[in-house]
Design goal:
- The complex is a heterotrimer of chains A (about 775), B (about 325) and C (about 160).
- Chain A has about 775 residues and is α+β, with helices and mostly antiparallel strands.
- Chain A has three domains: about 150 residues, Aldehyde Oxidoreductase, domain 4 (2-Layer Sandwich); about 180 residues, Aldehyde oxidase/xanthine dehydrogenase, a/b hammerhead (Aldehyde Oxidoreductase, domain 3, Alpha-Beta Complex), CATH 3.90.1170; about 325 residues, Aldehyde Oxidoreductase, domain 4, CATH 3.30.365.
- Helices cover about 25% and strands about 25% of the residues of chain A.
- Chain A has 19 helices and 32 strands.
- The two termini of chain A are about 45 Å apart.
- With about 325 residues, chain B is an alpha+beta fold.
- Chain B has 13 helices and eleven strands.
- The longest helix of chain B is centred in the last third of the chain and has 21 residues.
- Chain B is globular and about 60 Å long.
- Chain C has two domains: about 80 residues, Beta-grasp domain (Ubiquitin-like (UB roll), Roll); about 60 residues, [2Fe-2S]-binding domain (DNA polymerase, domain 1), CATH 1.10.150.120.
- Chain C contains six helices and five strands.
- The chains are: A alpha+beta (about 775), B alpha+beta (about 325), C alpha+beta (about 160).
- Chains B and C meet through helix 2 and helix 6 of B and strand 4 of C.
């Protein structure tokens, strides 16, 4: 790519402290459970103790009769199915006809207090016929006695099957110099955000319903409430308070949010529904338990000839984002490499387990682990350095993949070079003593999805409104959902950058569907790219109005006016200018408060085959990570000493936030490698608690060296791409491959717990294959 | 999560406490730091209608190198340089209990009497009801080792092994007055996960006494767990010994927690080594002999085979580190 | 049952007297009865540290504290370490270093850090890590939290 001179900015690219930071460090930020309404009732849910059961009858008579109980709801009151994807509406607010997992909602109570609500739940009588329990996706592929959903393919529990075939995979394998195969097994993991879900709903006599909820996609919640409750969207108001972490776990419209609203309607009073931590684990929607089978063929130089991939994905009880998951496990496996021939067979199978869904780096994490381990194997088989193998396969900028993804910017080669140099790779790889090792893992992820859910493709994915009045403060409205990643800060900074004003003038308003223009929320790593472009466009509109006023005041043509700090002045004659305040006052003479709007649309790009849109994005992120590990070869315990994280997010607009996203992603990725696991025995979740679900603690976190070396993206706002999810992906294979370098054992089952490490060491010793002399 | 109603008592003397315990026989729990009892109460595990809070009983306080009051907080022990210097193994264990926040409230007595733990027990009422209750709470069968006679819940305290290795004694008060027994004897109750101690109903642990012979020992506690904080022991190995300058071991004790229903010592194995030199071979033999005897079951995070295999490794390491360490 | 006896203690420097039943948990009393909502409810079982308060100066899990046992004690919540205007040095460092993301765990970390620096004004990195090892954060990977506490100890934001 031709070298382009990189502009610099006043704010963007700096370390910008989060705008709501002062509220959060003082406990003044308001989360849903911090809010209360007069006369508010408490809701509690009756959950199914059965993994799979036909509901014969639910008798709520005694529960209703209990003093202090205002309403008891069961499924048939609001039976309209819903779900995050319009094509897979298979959930209901409360179970109708069947319970599909232990934890499924059977009834809901609104009462004067928690104790009364729980006493009422204990009085609900449920009569069921227990059904066969399906907990292994393998057995759900064929026709089963009692499909979990009627929509399973051909009487099976298969929710979605994807078959894709590009080029001639068999021919490529027959010509291969080397092939490698990795069969990976991945336990389910969950978001484990610290704020449990919470919703408050209030139905008022003016015929409106207001819902406050801990959601990362207020708009989809808004739509689902309307669909299920049968109320037009304009009579529903959705408000998003601060959200205490989400990572995908608050992106589906969730049944309890609808239940809470329904109870508010039934009772005519405000109702709060707050989850226990155990409720959060059952609600799950975390990363799918997955088995994959990856075969890769390369030529004698190590150039990739073909991928042949299968994935079997345990969906749990509902579809959720599962159709997307099934595609992503295939299509996100290729980048950052050029893969000329590609075959994929993916199946997502319903089981009687808590539903899985979208979790940070959705669909791109488990498959990436197996691919990167396979590439590590191939490098070894070819006697090539793993960096070199990756480098010769790098997708070039401005290219098209075999499945017709449009690749624009990529700084993957720069990432590789930086990670190699800074980690001291060449002095360490295969040269550290037995028990210590380094490993390379790479990553690739979408920077937003070209295919918005629930939207006609002609509608913008993001809209931003600005309003500035006599006070000189700029109110910013958008339904983008800050869930802690710093999108409010970025929104404010972009507006301030374009207008040349101090950040403190810009006030990002709380998401409120009555006043916030639609942005489809925080998922698929879309916010920086899409909201950022919309915000830039809105701010440019507002700046145009101010420049026109300044031009009028100065008697100069608008084209000659430039924007500097809190001032508009004549280019080349800086002494001739007016202040921001003076320009504003002039501009307001005609219209009063100034308003501006900006929007961002992607036009679907990609092929025309079935599923072609899955994974298409306006840009992609790239990553190259090196992990260094130290293994206790007698106990299997290991320590990740350091991670060098080279990441291509285009230009980092808020360095503080980008670093925070990378560090947090590494932490979450390490959790999945080292110990996090939804531990099921059959359909039953054994560890629905923070004590037994092993989130890494502060003392497990390695040193992280962040290497931001990327060029600007041509279409991203100010050159930026995503940094919220992609940074997770490379963590896992970097550690897996580092363990191989340390002890010569390939781990294909996650999490890699000490007992598994020790078993691997044993196996290698038994086979009489010493490693590094041990 | 709320607690079901109970009556709360806050006696201000040991006599009053013991009297109250007699009056409320079988209908109360003692409340020390609350970090074990209150989560269990929130999960509706074996609720009692009365709680006797011990925070105002002066006889349960006090900390010296001879005596640790049962209500002494772990965070205070952790910050006591004299205690660390005198009993390094005990100090290891104290500083590895749960988290700093738990240690701020958690007490010596509470850790000694921490409820035994099991995947089938430490769950909410909903969870347990959905699977079928177990012997230890509300049910009549064990899900870990399917049968109806015996509970296999795991002893998960960290302080008991190092204290046992120091030959500590426990001072107990009850309706019949006070008594002192070896701490190990308190746990010698038949190995059931439900009846965990030899304490008579209503008896209370007043203090732990450290014999003068416990001073000057080299000691170490090694804890196996998934994360370096939060987690209960998947295995806890304590050793304490006295080595002569020539390298012969004069006295050696070893105790293990986190592996079975009660903390165990292995005096027959360790006393056989006293008077001799602890060669690598003898250490290895000891470690393996201990590993042979310990039988974890599958009711914690790590698999029992692995935990069992780790016994030998941890014993060997604890011995090596204790020997290399400073004498208390 | 003496279910609604009065409980008296000092909350953030002010005396408080409030009805309190024996089974009331301190976290519930603070959030529900006294409307001090800066103290967060993350797990209710002592496994996340979001509900940390200072009990006579010591970081304590309010979700595992019986409210009645704080009779006569000094309870400090995040509201109590926040100056009327501006931020405390620890708070300012958390903001400057981006140690908050979602912010839900933040009050607990700020209180733990405040107590640490009072007890040990110049902690090593290891001492900081150890002090916060009972507070879970799912957003930051702890890195910026550790940086912030270290910066506060050095007297800068």
């Amino acid at each position: 790519m031709a070298s382009v001179e990189r502009p610099t900015y006043r704010l963007l690219g700096q370390r910008i402290p989060y705008v709501e930071g002062p509220l959060k460090v003082t406990g003044r930020a308001e989360y849903t459970d911090d809010l209360r309404r007069p006369g508010m009732l408490v809701a509690r849910l009756l959950r199914s103790p059965w993994p799979h059961a036909r509901l014969r009858s639910i008798d709520t008579t005694a529960a209703r009769a209990l003093p202090g109980v205002y309403a008891v709801l069961t499924g048939e009151r609001y039976p309209t199915p819903f779900g995050v994807l319009p094509i897979t509406h298979d959930e209901t607010a409360i179970a109708v006809g069947k319970a599909r997992y232990t934890g499924d909602i059977l009834a809901a109570v609104a009462a004067q207090d928690e104790r009364t609500a729980e006493a009422a739940l204990a009085l609900v009588r449920v009569d069921v016929e227990e059904l066969p329990e399906y907990s292994d996706p393998r057995t759900g592929i064929a026709r089963v006695a009692e499909p979990i959903h009627a929509r399973g393919l051909n009487g099976s529990n298969v929710q979605k099957e994807v078959v894709q075939d590009f080029g001639d995979v068999d021919a490529a394998f027959s010509q291969a110099a080397q092939t490698a195969r990795v069969r990976g097994t991945f336990a389910g993991v969950t978001h484990a955000f610290t704020e449990p879900m919470a919703t408050i709903a209030e139905s008022t006599p003016d015929g409106r319903l207001t819902v406050w909820s801990a959601t990362q996609v207020p708009h989809y919640l808004h739509r689902s409430l309307s669909e299920v409750l049968g109320i037009p969207m304009h009579r529903i108001r959705v408000i998003k308070p601060e959200v205490g972490g989400a990572f995908g776990g608050k992106s589906d419209p969730l049944p309890h949010e609808i239940v809470c609203a329904a109870l508010a309607i039934e009772t005519g009073r405000p109702v709060k529904l707050l989850f226990d931590r155990e409720d959060v684990f059952y609600t799950n929607h975390g990363r799918h338990p997955t088995q994959n089978d990856v075969r890769i063929a390369v030529d004698a130089d190590g150039r990739i000839l073909a991928y042949d991939i299968e994935a079997l994905i345990d969906g749990g009880a509902w579809s959720s984002f599962g159709t997307v998951t099934t595609y992503y496990n295939g299509v996100l496996s290729m980048g950052p490499y050029r893969v000329p021939n590609f075959r994929y067979h993916g199946r997502r199978v319903y089981t009687n387990r808590p539903p899985s869904g979208a979790m940070r780096a959705h669909g791109g994490t488990n498959i990436r682990y197996s691919v990167e381990v396979a590439l590590d194997l191939l490098a070894e088989q070819l006697g090539r350095d793993p960096f070199d193998l990756r480098a010769i396969n790098a997708l070039p900028p401005n290219s098209t993949t075999v499945n017709e993804f449009r690749i624009t910017s990529t700084s993957f080669l720069k990432c590789l070079a930086a990670a190699r140099e800074k980690s001291g790779w060449d002095a360490k790889f295969r040269r550290l003593p037995y028990g210590r090792g380094v490993g390379l893992g790479c990553g690739f992820y979408i920077s937003g999805s070209n295919s918005p859910i629930h939207f006609t493709p002609k509608m913008p994915q993001s809209t931003v409104h600005l309003k500035v009045d006599m006070d000189g403060g700029i109110a910013v409205h958008s339904m983008q959902a800050d869930i802690g990643q710093g999108s409010n800060t970025l929104l404010a900074a972009i507006v301030a950058e374009v207008l040349g004003v101090d950040l403190e003038r810009v006030h990002v308003q709380r998401v409120d569907s009555d006043v916030s223009p639609i942005d489809i929320g925080s998922y698929s790593s879309r916010v920086t790219f899409m909201m950022g472009n919309a915000a830039r466009s809105a701010a440019l509109d507002l700046r145009g109005q101010l420049i026109a006023a300044a031009a009028e005041l100065l008697g100069r043509p608008a084209e000659s006016i430039e924007t500097t700090h809190e001032r508009f002045q004549v280019r080349g004659a800086p002494e001739v200018g007016v202040s921001f305040a003076a320009a504003l006052e002039k501009a307001m003479e005609r219209v009063g408060a100034l308003t501006a709007t900006g929007a961002y649309s992607t036009t679907p790009k990609g092929g025309t085959f079935k599923g072609a849109r899955a994974g298409t994005a306006p840009a992609y992120s790239f990553a190259a990570y090196v992990a260094q590990v130290d293994v206790d070869v007698e106990t299997g315990e290991y320590h990740v000493e350091k991670i060098w994280a080279a990441f291509d997010c285009g230009r980092a607009l808020n360095r503080l936030a980008v670093e925070g996203q990378i560090e947090g992603s590494i932490h979450m990725g390490l959790g999945q490698v080292m110990g996090e696991s939804m531990n099921y025995r059959g359909a039953r979740l054994f560890n629905p608690s923070f004590l037994e679900y092993k989130i890494p603690t502060a003392d497990q976190m390695p040193e992280v060296e962040i290497l931001l070396v990327a060029e600007d993206d041509p279409e991203g706002p100010f050159g930026a791409k995503e940094a919220g999810e992609g940074p997770l992906i490379a963590t896992l294979p970097a550690v897996g491959n580092a363990l191989y370098d340390a002890i010569g054992v390939r781990f294909t089952e996650l999490p890699i717990t000490p007992d598994r490490v020790l078993r691997g060491i044993d196996r290698r010793r038994r086979e009489g294959r010493p490693w590094k002399g041990a | 999560m709320h607690l079901d109603p109970f009556e709360l008592h806050r006696p201000t003397s040991l006599d009053a406490t013991v009297r109250l315990a007699g009056d409320l026989a079988g209908r109360f729990d003692y409340l020390a730091g609350g970090t074990d009892l209150l989560p269990n109460y929130k999960m509706h595990l074996n609720l009692r209608p009365h709680l006797i809070a011990l925070d105002r009983v002066p006889e349960l306080r006090g900390r010296s190198l001879e005596r640790l009051g049962a209500m002494e907080r772990l965070a205070d022990l952790e910050r006591d340089p004299a205690l660390r210097a005198a009993f390094p193994g005990l100090a290891d264990a104290v500083s590895e209990v749960a988290t700093p926040l738990v240690r701020a409230s958690g007490t010596v007595g509470g850790n000694l009497l921490v409820e035994t733990r099991c995947f089938f027990f430490n769950q909410s009422y909903f969870w347990r009801a959905s699977l079928g209750f177990c012997l230890k709470a509300d049910g009549d069968r064990c899900h870990v080792v399917p049968q109806k006679e015996r509970c296999y819940a795991t002893f998960s305290g960290d302080l008991a092994p190092p204290l046992i290795a120091l030959d500590a004694e426990v001072e107990i008060a009850g309706a019949d007055g006070r008594r002192r027994i070896p701490l190990a004897a308190m746990y010698d109750a038949g190995g059931d996960g439900i009846r965990r101690t030899t304490l008579a109903p209503g008896e209370i642990v007043v203090a732990v006494h450290l014999p003068s012979a416990a001073r000057g020992l080299r000691s170490r506690y090694k804890k196996l767990r998934v994360r370096p904080s939060y987690d209960f022991p998947e295995l806890g190995v304590a050793v304490a010994g006295r080595w002569e300058d020539g390298g012969r071991v004069e006295r050696l004790r070893l105790a293990i927690g986190g592996a079975e229903t009660y903390p165990r010592r292995f005096d027959d194995l360790t006393s056989a080594l006293e008077g001799g030199t602890l060669s690598d071979e003898r250490v290895r033999a000891l470690a393996e002999a201990v590993g042979e005897r310990v039988r974890p079951v599958h009711n914690t995070f790590l698999l029992p085979d692995y935990r069992r295999r780790m016994v030998a490794v941890y014993v060997r390491r604890a011995l090596a580190e204790a020997r290399a360490g400073r004498a208390g | 049952m003496s279910s609604q006896e009065l409980l008296s203690f000092r909350l953030n420097g002010q005396p408080v007297t409030t009805p309190c039943e024996p089974a009331r948990i301190l976290l519930d009393l603070l959030r529900e009865d006294l409307e001090e909502t800066g103290t967060k409810r993350g797990c209710d079982l002592g496994t996340c540290g979001c509900c940390t308060v200072l009990l006579d100066g010591r970081p304590t899990l309010s979700c595992l504290s019986l409210a009645r046992l704080v009779e006569g004690c000094e309870v400090t919540t995040i509201e109590g370490v926040s100056p009327p205007q501006g931020l405390s040095p620890v708070q300012a460092a958390f903001v400057a270093h981006g140690a908050t993301q979602c912010g839900f765990c933040t009050p607990g970390f700020v209180l733990t850090a405040t107590a640490l620096l009072k007890e040990n004004p110049h902690p090593s990195r290891e001492e900081i890590v150890r002090a916060i090892s009972g507070n879970l954060c799912r957003c930051t990977g702890y890195t910026k939290i550790i940086e912030a506490i270290d910066a506060a100890a050095r007297g800068g934001p």
